[in-house]
Amino acid sequence: MTITLKAAVSGQTPPTAAPPLSRRPVRGRVDRTVVILASAVAAILALLICYPVGTLVSAAFGDKGLAVLGRLATDPVNQRIVGNTVVLGLIVGVVGTAIGFLFAYAQVRLSFRGKRLLHILAMVPIVAPPFAVATAVITLFGRNGAISSGLFGIKGDIYGLPGLVLVLSLSFFPVAYMNFRGMLESLDPSLDEAAAGLGASKLRVFFSVTIPMLAPGFAGSFLLLFVEGIADLANPLVLGGDYTVLSTRAYLAVTGDYDTGAGAAYALTILVPALLVFLVQRYWTSKRSVVTVTGKPTGHTELITSASVRLPVLAVVCAISALIVTIYLTVLVGGFLKVPGVNNEFTLDHFRFVLTGLGSKAMTDTATLALIAAPIAGVLGMLIAWLVVRKLKRTAGLLDFVGMLGLAVPGTVLGIGYALCYLTPTSVFGVQILPALAGGSAAFAGGVAIVMVYIVRSLPSGQRAGVSALSQIDPAIEEASTSLGAGSGTTFRKVTLPLIQSALLAGLTFAFARSMTTLSPIVFLTTPGIKIMTSQILAEVDSGRFGNAFAYCTVLIVIVLALILLINFLVRKVIFRGRTHSR
């Protein structure tokens, strides 16, 4: 692949007779810009992640925390809570991974109409609040649900483990879907052709070629969904019933018993398996590499038209898609009903409450904080990716690991950690270096801490996208810029960022959507001066005002979609002025 640098810095292309550029830095030569940037990034990550997590671990090993940890090991009730958490994570990991794979396989390998619609349906949960599904499921399938009671007359009980598995699997399967879709699109079709040429049937090709090539995807998706399942707070609060898990126990310890030591101990119990799973995943991906011979797909993948394969897969996918459509239509329509499922008279009172009452402040506050956090998270992710892939050697792995901790550290753990360390001023050796950042008495009513949490939770997606994009770009293009006299900072700003603008856009989009819909860490940091929409929705659900909750969810989804379109327009047409870069 030939890459040409067109007047990136000086307007002149490097002379053809110049000696080849060395791809290794000169030994003993220190790039001050890189040192400054790396030090600044390390300090930011320490404040965003390391300090809160370290504070939580310290609190968990205090007197109250140790007492709780002891009861977790000896008390049957607490042991059952730990078991409930692990079982929930395992089932959600298996079911969510299977759903994601089926959707991706249908999208990439099967021949049928409506693929764009299927993709949209698979991505809807990303822009929706985490417990919108739970609220709709209660309305549809609860003890007095519109479907379970009204249509079929079956008194079902959706609360507990079955309901949680259903809701969490439908909420988080897009993670597995995106993973499998990318892997299936990158598989070399010649491998299937070679196996078929040797006489293997399509079923045997599927199990002997396709599935082994996707093994890292299955492992990675299962581990990610396991972490999401054990760490989720919103859905167990709404739909858990008597099925208590560690996240709800930690939440009740902090907000109900005002016992931060106990909350830290419960959170630590969630953190340990989450970190272990994260480390196993990194070890798996670093040791097990599944690649094609050429590194790029060759030829065209033949879509499957056989009814024996298409019909079973599409039947399952269509059934799940119908359930997704039903759930989100319930969210949309429920905002216009007086009491959804009970009194279905049309009303605009719920939207009037959201748009003119407390909801108006919640919309403004949430959107403002998310718009502040998204560009910081996006640029920081690209900067970390650039340092890891291009500039750092010995410390690259450590920096990459710390940056990705926002994905590994559960939201409940992060929220309690922030509440413990940033409710009071931060001091080092008796010298105050930071004022209180969380709580009603802090600056901007604690909004700074909320923005920091948004950045931590959004950073890993942009970082991974940046690493992937930079790995596909020949380093010579940046070295050419340096040889023309540009410093590392100028090269990053004028050459690297434009080349990875698609990764930057993906990071910005996900950062904004994640910030607008996150709840687990924010519930510990909200104050009377800051209204967050997800926290307000939870309050409405707890009070049984499902109509207001549905109206909030609908408005939130509309805001997320509208501002994502605006972000895409600004990045492509204003910041980069419509420039595209071929590689």
TrEMBL record:
Record has Metal-binding as a keyword: no
Primary location: membrane
Domain of life the protein comes from: Bacteria
Residues in ABC transmembrane type-1 domain copies: 82-281, 363-567
Spans through the membrane: 34-61, 81-105, 117-138, 158-177, 205-227, 261-280, 313-337, 367-389, 401-420, 432-456, 503-525, 549-571
Similarity comment text for this entry: Belongs to the binding-protein-dependent transport system permease family.
Stated name of the protein: ABC transporter permease
Organism: Luethyella okanaganae
